[in-house]
Each structure stands twice: as structure tokens, then as C-alpha cells.
């Protein structure tokens, strides 16, 4: 995310996990052994703690984006998908693919308010869904985030202090180097900014 207080916009860049780039590699003793050309998603596998895993991913993204400054990171465990979904009362999406291989209720064309398990199916699963590609899964992730953001904004209109409550619900399923106060302050400042559609980079699989 890029929060621009001058233009009053929030821009989103979604990077494909299969993006090829230079990643810092570490030896068994935790020593740097140089970089290797590999999938961006593999950068998170290097490190002995969640914070080190995340920092290595941040460094890989920074290098890929020509050393652009990155002020902080927030990462979520996979079960955070359901936590976020339920905290918002269930995210409502339209199913453009058939998910009945995983849940008989998730039929193509249906507009559905997802439960926690369905939210994870919608955003994570890709085998036996549509064309099965990560590219299609990324499109579903964008639609989920867009719907969740709209529901969060509506919640904040009614309950301005809700951000603190949401942060506390996510504490056990996220890792970040940003403080609670900083995130709440920035989110409140950007609350009425224009959130632009997520951008993706061109490329071939």
C-alpha cells in the first residue's frame, strides 16, 4: 500500500508470488550467503523467526522495486482470513467460479456472505476452481479485499473506534514492525482518501 497524504489516495500494488527476483539466501548458521534468482514467495522461507522471514521478504520486494523505501510490514497467518471475515460480519462477494468441490453451497453466480471457512476457500484455493491459475486467484483476492474494505469503511462510519477493536482481534494472527498507535492513526487519517483499484504488473507465466 502507498498512502499519499498530499493526493489523498491509497494505492495498492499486488505482486504475483511467482515473480522472479533476487532473494537473499542464508546458510544453516544464519549467515548471509549471497542472493539467488528465485520466486518472490520463497523469500519468506529464509529466517529463524517470523520477523526475520518477513524482513527478508521486505528486502526482496524493495530490491525488485528498485530500492523504493518500505516503511513497514504487516503479515497475517492464513487463519487470519477467517478472523478478518468474521470481524466484519462476513464479507459478501459474487462467485464467478464454481467452488462446489470444496463447499456445495459455493455455486457459480451466487452472491454469498462468506463464513470463515468459505472466505479461506475463496481467497486461497485454486485447484478445481476455474482455470486453476494463481492469476485467477489473485483476481479473487482483489475482489475480497475490495469488498472487505467497503464493509470496514461502513463499520467505521457507525463505530469510529472500531479500528482499535479490529487490531486487537488480529494481534495473535499477525506479525508487524508497526505500532498499534501508528497503524490506527494512519488508518484514521486515510479513512476518507480515495482507494484506487489494485495494480498488477504485466508478465507471463
Topology diagram in text:
Elements lengths: L1 E3 L4 E3 L1 E2 L5 E7 L5 E8 L10 H15 L9 E3 L3 H8 L4 E3 L16 E3 L2 H9 L9 H25 L3 H9 L3 E3 L3 H10 L4 E2 L3 E2 L5
Parallel strand pairs: 2-10, 3-11
Antiparallel strand pairs: 1-2, 4-5, 6-9, 7-8
Helix pairs in contact: 2-3, 3-4
How do you describe this structure in short?
With about 200 residues, this protein is α/β, with parallel strands linked by helices.
Give a quick set of tags describing it.
single chain; 205 residues; alpha/beta; three-stranded mixed sheet; two-stranded parallel sheet; 6 helices; 19% strand
Overall pLDDT, averaged? 94
Largest beta sheet: strand ordering: 1-2-10
Largest sheet: 3 strands, mixed
Strand runs, count:
11
Order of helices and strands: EEEEEHEHEEHHHEHEE
Roughly how many Å apart are the termini? Answer: 24 Å
What coarse outline follows from CA principal-axis ratios?
globular
Q: What percent strand?
A: 15-25%
Can you give the helix content as a percent range?
Answer: 25-40%
Unreliable spans are none
- Structural classification: alpha/beta
Q: Give me the Rg, rounded.
A: 18 Å
Q: Determine the number of helices (DSSP H or I, runs of at least 4 residues).
A: 6
Q: Could you walk me through the main structural features you see in this protein, from its secondary elements to its overall organization?
A:
The longest helix is centred in the C-terminal third of the chain and has 25 residues, at 134-158. With 205 residues, the protein is α/β, with parallel strands linked by helices. The chain is globular, with a radius of gyration of 18 Å. The strands form five sheets. A three-stranded mixed beta sheet has the order 1-2-10, with no helix packed on it. A two-stranded parallel ribbon has the order 3-11. A hairpin with a 5-residue loop joins strand 4 and strand 5. The mean pLDDT is 94. Helix 2 (80-87) packs across helix 3 (116-124) and helix 3 packs across helix 4. The chain has helices at residues 50-64, 80-87, 116-124, 134-158, 162-170, 180-189; strands spanning 2-4, 9-11, 13-14, 20-26, 32-39, 74-76, 92-94, 111-113, 174-176, 194-195, 199-200. The two termini are 24 Å apart.
Amino acid at each position: 500500500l502507498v498512502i499519499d497524504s498530499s493526493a489523498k489516495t491509497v494505492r495498492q500494488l499486488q505482486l504475483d508470488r511467482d515473480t522472479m527476483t533476487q532473494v537473499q539466501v542464508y546458510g544453516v548458521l544464519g549467515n548471509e550467503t549471497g542472493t539467488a534468482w528465485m520466486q518472490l514467495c520463497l523469500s519468506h522461507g529464509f529466517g529463524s523467526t517470523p520477523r526475520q522471514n518477513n524482513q527478508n521478504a521486505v528486502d526482496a520486494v524493495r530490491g525488485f522495486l528498485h530500492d523504493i523505501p518500505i516503511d513497514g510490514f504487516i503479515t497475517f497467518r492464513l487463519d487470519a482470513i477467517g478472523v478478518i471475515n468474521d470481524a466484519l460480519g462476513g464479507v459478501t462477494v459474487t462467485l464467478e467460479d464454481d467452488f462446489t468441490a470444496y463447499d456445495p453451497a459455493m455455486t457459480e453466480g451466487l452472491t454469498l456472505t462468506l463464513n470463515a471457512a468459505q472466505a479461506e476457500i475463496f481467497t486461497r484455493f485454486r485447484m478445481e476452481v476455474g482455470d486453476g491459475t494463481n492469476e485467477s486467484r489473485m483476481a479473487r483476492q482483489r475482489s475480497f479485499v475490495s469488498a472487505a474494505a467497503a464493509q470496514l469503511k461502513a463499520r467505521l462510519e457507525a463505530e469510529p473506534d472500531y479500528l482499535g477493536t479490529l487490531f486487537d482481534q488480529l494481534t495473535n494472527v499477525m506479525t508487524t514492525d508497526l505500532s498499534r498507535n501508528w497503524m490506527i492513526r494512519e488508518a484514521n487519517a486515510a479513512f476518507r482518501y480515495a482507494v484506487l483499484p489494485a495494480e498488477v504488473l504485466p508478465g507471463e507465466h
